[in-house]
Amino acid sequence: MPAESLADSRIAAFSDGVFAVAITLLVLDLQVPKGPLERLPVFLAGEASSYVLFVLSFAIIGIKWLNHHRLFARIRRADTTLIVLNLVLLLGISVVPFTTALLGRYLTTPDAPLASVVYGVVWTLNGIAYTLVLGYAQRSGLAPAASTLAERRVFLLYAIGPLGYAVGAAISYVSIPLAIAIYCLVVAAYIPPYGRRAKPAA
Amino acid sequence: MPAESLADSRIAAFSDGVFAVAITLLVLDLQVPKGPLERLPVFLAGEASSYVLFVLSFAIIGIKWLNHHRLFARIRRADTTLIVLNLVLLLGISVVPFTTALLGRYLTTPDAPLASVVYGVVWTLNGIAYTLVLGYAQRSGLAPAASTLAERRVFLLYAIGPLGYAVGAAISYVSIPLAIAIYCLVVAAYIPPYGRRAKPAA
Amino acid sequence: MPAESLADSRIAAFSDGVFAVAITLLVLDLQVPKGPLERLPVFLAGEASSYVLFVLSFAIIGIKWLNHHRLFARIRRADTTLIVLNLVLLLGISVVPFTTALLGRYLTTPDAPLASVVYGVVWTLNGIAYTLVLGYAQRSGLAPAASTLAERRVFLLYAIGPLGYAVGAAISYVSIPLAIAIYCLVVAAYIPPYGRRAKPAA
Amino acid sequence: MPAESLADSRIAAFSDGVFAVAITLLVLDLQVPKGPLERLPVFLAGEASSYVLFVLSFAIIGIKWLNHHRLFARIRRADTTLIVLNLVLLLGISVVPFTTALLGRYLTTPDAPLASVVYGVVWTLNGIAYTLVLGYAQRSGLAPAASTLAERRVFLLYAIGPLGYAVGAAISYVSIPLAIAIYCLVVAAYIPPYGRRAKPAA
Known about the structure:
Chain A is mostly helical. Helix content of chain A is 70%, strand content 0%. Chain A has one domain. Chain A is built from eight helices and no strands. In chain A, helix 1 packs parallel to helix 4 (80-94), helix 5 (96-106) runs antiparallel to helix 6 and helix 6 packs parallel to helix 8 (176-188). The radius of gyration of chain A is 19 Å and the shape is elongated.
């Protein structure tokens, strides 16, 4: 498709907005007791898993924002296909306050594995969207092709990452804490900087 | 009216903010069960139409953001009338989390057609706001007049689009899925890039 | 106080964010029926006043954003006092989804006048915050002093505006629709461009 | 870690977004009566402490935004560690609508001291995150080392501030109003401009 006249800056601004709103809406999953009040220690203890999930989803969205940032730092211009792929990517981010709340609500029920699968599948699809954005940008010349070893390593990470989330989702039927540990491991793999081997700051 | 001293950048930033918040607030329409828990598959199946509507409204707002982007890329400066018209346009975007929730809530009732009409009328009015922004900007010299064939095609699209949403709204009394299909068709017509015939990227 | 090293751009970005979130959160005041469903026309008719208030608050916040924009276009640099005053101004904006919901909830009760007073007092205080920002910026040399007739007219508008909201609030005890009409009149006075007499665009 | 290619501007934009959304979501803690209506004066009087807490949290987040602004004005470039530390900082901001609501809900119960501790501990941890960001940036050369007396005073403030919040939290078991007064005092210490001794504007 022909290149858009869209400035990257507004794509970044809109994407930052969606990331910032989604990550902050996670707090709405933290309920304050309604109706008759339990004692606060009892209430907080009962909600402990919600707090863990809140931090988990916050961390994943935060690291995904960081990688979105890195991804678009490489993209020199946008076309319509890229923008539509980016919208699909953002759809996967914006739905997380819901999948997090769902997992929290069903965590102590027999349906916890299914809720964890829903949670992991959204991350899987979102990971695929990242891969599509990167792959499309490189193939269509919107971003430089992966030429260095470091850049090929990044592409490999993007190709394998969604698989990692999918494995985590499948493991949910064995153990939810193990599934969550895998989600953490996968996202942690995205933290180290990539794409350039700058000298460490003195 | 005299030209404003307003920089376009802040208009774009504010508009991006409203688009980003509205598109992300759609997630609040996705409910987590309260009170006694249904089994999760039963719950998810019962909410399936909410998920479809969530994706539909996300896609429409996303594509409308893309076109807002394109529209303001052509506008060289703003005046007060343009800013007020843009506020009317944003009003139509910000109300969508409500009309989406309303349609989801009434979808299985005898009032589903009316709920779909409300949903479609908001898109119709919002489409008219886009047309007014473009038309006013061209007439008052804030944007270059449509001179090329491609630009006249865009104006035609903007003039016909609202009619498309209105037809979708009217069709609601025949069939809701058909109405939704028409909403999808209309918004899909706005995806292709326009206004310049750039050579495809190699 | 000494001048801050703060770039105006980040103050504008943060303020735009608060305006954009507050104006979009208004949609949360539009309720979808819970529990047993009324017929939709009955429900919509019963909520009609909520929709009017939604549009009213959207319009006021939108026009106040426009004037915030104009105000900061004149401010050449910021200091701490100015930033704190701007935070007070933003406090008045961010509370509007609450005062709007409160007025909607009490509109058909004997306490409607008091709810309208609460609504109007927030606008009054917010208007005073605008006046303080403008007055402080001009007095401390952060913005050029009002030298032309047009600029003095703006200062007069900023000085009288809060009084207008206060009158609207007081009128609430006579007639709520009249109070709302006065709120509309006051905010409409802020729409015309000011501060420069540009030639109309050809 | 190697320096990122990330532009500071997008870090600031994302952070501004989180601050703006969190500060505006505080309004959701202000409830409108559901079910049977109390008289409005009775309702408002009963909610008075919620309004005080709303203003308190708004003021603290606002001043923390100001200091985030100042902090990043000194940071010349970012690396991955800094961005991760900044995400931890933002986590502490985004959770405030919850801790504020929790304190408001338990303020009149025997568990009020514990709720105030939760509230204060979040500020304490958030204050530590600020200190870590500043300390890391200075140590790793991303920001100039504190060389002047004024800059050393800022670092002292950042090192002592979290202790102040912790003291406020501990005092909660003596008196909640006193604890809140301490929170106010600590945040007030962050208002004066720092880092440069500019001449006062004439």
